[in-house]
Amino acid sequence: MSSPARCSASRSRSAPSTPCARRGRHTRRESNAYRPRLVQRMQQKATYFHAAASIANSAGIFHLTRAHDFASLPEVISWLERHWLDLHLTEKAA
After folding, report:
1. Is the pTM value of this prediction over 0.85?
2. Is residue 55 within 8 Å of residue 46, measured between CB atoms?
């Protein structure tokens, strides 16, 4: 039987580091950045960090954990729709 979808909100200030095969360790923010090497080469790491912190402080950060099978997709979709309605991101369908 599949486990139900779960989601948690987080306001964590520090992201865990993830290993990078070529350059040692990077923060999750850096490994998920758009063109992180360009940010580094243009010496924009501080600007990028401040922009990322500003976005994180003004937006909710959520984590969805779900079973990876097609049978649970309707339940996951329903849960997400309820979550989005609670956040006033969508309108209830007629």
Report:
1. no
2. no
